[in-house]
């Protein structure tokens, strides 16, 4: 008995120390990357889409939706927030992984014990930060254009928070899968095109009931629709529920569907990332640099 206890304790301590080092590395990466993005011209890229969205919302503030008491501006705010969540989850992490793969960052991380999981955890944390910060800024400014759009109770703020985070976790793993699969940065447009296509048919800017029946079924199978629905639950007045399918916010269904997509992504992403890590080598990084020098991307 004593021998087993003695053997188990060092093993547990070693595993704990290893994961402690991984998390410390991820935290350092998060601080450094956020500092770089907050104090560089990259900050402008955070603000362009929210600024354009708010401009459009300003001109739509007096237009109602399908004869209801809800304006297009009210419906547009949770739509813009959902778009921020989905694009950060699918496009942001994919582009980041492709860049780090081609510039040798992931190869260097692979050479350090615990470096690869530390880097990937840091990438996820950075993308969460770069999604939530623009969302809060957009919501703060929207209150001056659309009265009453801010969450009206602590429960509404809590709903806004958990839907945003769960929406990110439902999309980030699939963004990582796309980043691991795409061979060159030039192919990132395929992910972007698909993402914006899903945004267009998922009812985040206009009631899903206005779309054909088959498209409604398709949209409800995707995390994009449920992210938008959850954010509308947090931000829109109670009378806006008449615009939803079944005239219900379907909070439990929202949590369940986003949870299912999160689990599916967490199963698929490690497989794709392990395959990408196996392909990482000095010759692959050199070929990527040669391609950039010759083609510019």
From TrEMBL:
It comes from Kineosphaera limosa NBRC 100340. Keywords: Antibiotic resistance, Membrane, Transmembrane, Transmembrane helix. This is Putative ABC transporter permease protein. InterPro entries: ABC-2_transporter, ABC2_TM, ABC_2_transport. The chain crosses the membrane at residues 38-60, 80-99, 120-150, 156-179, 186-208, 255-273. GO terms for molecular function: ABC-type transporter activity. Residues 71-269 form the ABC-2 type transporter transmembrane domain. It is a multi-pass membrane protein. The keyword DNA repair does not apply. The keyword Membrane applies. Coiled coil: none annotated. GO terms for biological process: response to antibiotic. GO terms for cellular component: ATP-binding cassette (ABC) transporter complex.
């Amino acid at each position: 008995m004593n021998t087993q206890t003695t053997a188990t304790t060092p093993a547990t301590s070693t595993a704990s120390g290893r994961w402690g080092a991984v998390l410390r590395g991820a935290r350092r990466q998060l601080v450094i990357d956020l500092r770089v993005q907050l104090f560089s011209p990259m900050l402008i890229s955070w603000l362009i889409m929210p600024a354009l969205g708010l401009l459009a919302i300003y001109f739509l503030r007096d237009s109602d939706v399908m004869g209801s008491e809800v304006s297009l501006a009210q419906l547009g705010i949770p739509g813009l927030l959902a778009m921020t969540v989905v694009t950060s989850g699918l496009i942001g992490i994919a582009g980041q992984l492709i860049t780090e793969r081609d510039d040798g960052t992931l190869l260097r991380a692979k050479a350090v014990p615990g470096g690869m999981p530390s880097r990937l955890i840091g990438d996820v944390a950075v993308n969460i930060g770069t999604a939530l910060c623009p969302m809060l800024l957009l919501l703060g400014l929207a209150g001056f254009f659309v009265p009453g759009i801010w969450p009206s109770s602590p429960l509404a703020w809590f709903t806004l928070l958990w839907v945003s985070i769960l929406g990110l976790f439902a999309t980030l793993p699939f963004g990582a899968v796309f980043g691991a699969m795409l061979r060159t940065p030039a192919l990132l447009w395929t992910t972007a095109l698909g993402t914006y296509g899903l945004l267009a048919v998922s009812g985040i800017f206009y009631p899903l009931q206005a779309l054909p029946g088959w498209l409604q079924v398709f949209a409800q199978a995707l995390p994009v629709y449920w992210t938008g629905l959850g954010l509308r639950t947090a931000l829109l007045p109670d009378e806006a529920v008449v615009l939803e399918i079944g005239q219900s916010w379907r909070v439990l269904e929202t949590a369940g569907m986003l949870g299912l997509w999160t689990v599916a992504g967490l199963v698929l992403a490690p497989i794709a990332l392990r395959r990408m890590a196996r392909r990482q080598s000095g010759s692959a990084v050199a070929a990527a640099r040669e391609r950039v020098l010759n083609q510019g991307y």
